[in-house]
Design a protein that fits this description.
Number of strands: 19
Mean pLDDT: 94
Structural class: alpha/beta
Shape: elongated
Helix content: 25-40%
Radius of gyration: 24 Å
CATH topology of the largest domain: Rossmann fold
CATH architecture of the largest domain: 3-Layer(aba) Sandwich
CATH superfamily of the largest domain: NAD(P)-binding Rossmann-like Domain
Number of helices: 14
Distance between the termini: 49 Å
Length: 443
């Protein structure tokens, strides 16, 4: 490839992992080699790969690959310019990435867990060694959300971000809403379809989304990565009745990651959330992802697309490889910063305790079917200045002396709400543990 009349040498890529994303990355780079070369200004070739298992029937360009079963041969190989880490998890991914950086290699990864937990250490090592670590595919698959935050929205003070950033959880909630199915039933189907792992904990408990939200919060507000301070709550308590109640009240339930700058610091929280049904993000269904960003200059912008999958994620990985190829002749100090802000300009703004978060609440209670119960609940809420937006009560089945009641509050402080909730639980008329979800207007 010639640029400005000068021939530039090809960039050599080493892939660690030839599974779903690694294999997709290889196929995209081979199939679209000519187009990618035109965009990057030089050829990009996958020359080495490490994988213990792979399916040769699904992969292109294997005849030009030196394949090993030892990933450390990739990060130690002097011919490799860019290491693409696609094995996931914390270890040995961390050791491989740090070794690659030490050896002066640029790194591309889709590993959100690695970046969320070890990103501060990794970026510091990259800065010391004058290399880039790119991670567009770590959040929302093929949606270029990291590039949007680091570059496209650089003129804005970001006010808040709310995202559906786990496709498995969104698929489960969509099926429950559309077909009235139970959580456990839909989860089993999600596992059979390959949307959920055999151990679905990271998806349904919100850990996967919390990894991604941690990254988004750092990019938006210029704070160090702090996964341990992200509040995380799963979707296992949601029942078809809650989804029906929400619809009657004009809401949809989504598993959201929310980060917001407040006077007291940065909120970082992942939990089921009632959203007004008229919001675009409330109508994102199935395995799709969507991220809503509020900037002070641009206003609200919504980014929608495939949050996972071989080719969508590979699209983001290859975009990172091209960015690095373009920047190989740029002084390291003038590249786009890893977390959008210059490393010595990161803020010490604290992460807000969940007790100090202000939001509205949906509360479902099973209570004795007798007069005066709602009055007691209303009185307890009123004593703490928590106003009620709406009540719903379902008729009791014949012969049953219990009633399902749903309460929608106005915005209050979480610590205040939890203190009242403890008093409500203690009422003899309350027959089971209340189920509570937060409500966000996203206005």
């Amino acid at each position: 490839m010639h640029v400005w009349g000068k021939k530039l040498k090809a960039v050599k890529v080493g892939l660690i992992g030839l599974g779903t994303v690694g294999g997709g990355t290889l196929n995209v780079l081979v199939r679209n080699a000519s187009e990618i070369s035109r965009r990057a200004g030089r050829d990009i070739r996958v020359t080495h790969a490490a994988a213990r298992e792979y399916d040769p029937e699904t992969l292109d360009g294997l005849e030009n690959l030196d394949i090993s079963d030892d990933a450390f041969t990739i990060v130690e190989n002097p011919e490799v310019d860019i290491v693409v880490e696609m094995i996931g998890g914390y270890s040995p991914a961390r050791e491989l990435v740090l070794k690659a950086i030490k050896n002066g290699k640029h790194v591309v990864t889709a590993n959100k867990a690695l970046i969320a937990v070890h990103g501060n250490e990794i970026f510091e090592a990259a800065r010391e060694n004058g290399v880039t670590v790119a991670f567009e595919a770590a959040v929302a698959g093929g949606i270029p959300i990291i590039k949007a935050l680091r570059e496209g929205l650089v003129a804005n003070h970001i006010e808040w971000i709310a995202g559906i950033i786990n496709g498995t959880g969104n698929f489960i909630l969509s099926e429950m809403k559309d077909k009235g199915r139970e959580f456990a039933d839909v989860l089993k189907e999600a596992q059979e379809l390959g949307y959920a792992e055999a151990d679905p904990t990271f998806d349904v408990e919100g850990i996967d989304a919390a990894h991604k939200l941690t990254i988004l919060a750092s990019l938006a507000f210029g704070i160090p990565l702090q996964f341990d301070k992200c509040y995380t709550e799963g979707i296992g308590k949601i029942e078809p009745l809650d989804i029906s109640n929400a619809e009657q009240l004009g809401y949809r339930i989504k598993h959201l990651g929310i980060t917001r700058m407040t006077p007291g610091g940065v909120e970082m929280r992942v939990h089921p959330t009632l959203i007004p049904e008229k919001r675009l993000i409330a109508n994102v269904d199935g395995v799709m992802n969507a991220v809503l960003i509020q900037g002070d200059a641009v206003g609200p912008t919504l980014y929608y697309g495939a949050g996972a999958g071989s080719l969508p994620t590979a699209s983001a990985v290859v975009a990172d490889i091209v960015d690095i190829a373009r920047a190989l002749t740029v002084d390291p100090d003038n590249r786009v910063p890893h977390l959008a802000y210059q490393p010595d300009a990161l803020s010490s703004v604290p992460v807000v305790s969940m007790d100090d978060v202000h939001t509205a609440y949906y509360m479902r209670l099973m209570v004795t079917d007798e007069s005066g119960v709602l009055a007691k609940i209303t009185e307890l809420l009123g004593e703490s200045d928590i106003s009620i937006e709406a009540f719903l009560q379902k008729p009791s089945p014949a012969g049953v002396d219990a009633a399902a009641v749903a309460v929608l509050t106005k915005v209050t402080r979480e610590g205040t709400f939890n203190a009242v909730l403890d008093k409500i639980k203690a009422l003899p008329e309350v027959l089971s543990e209340p189920v509570c979800f937060r409500v966000e207007s996203l206005a």
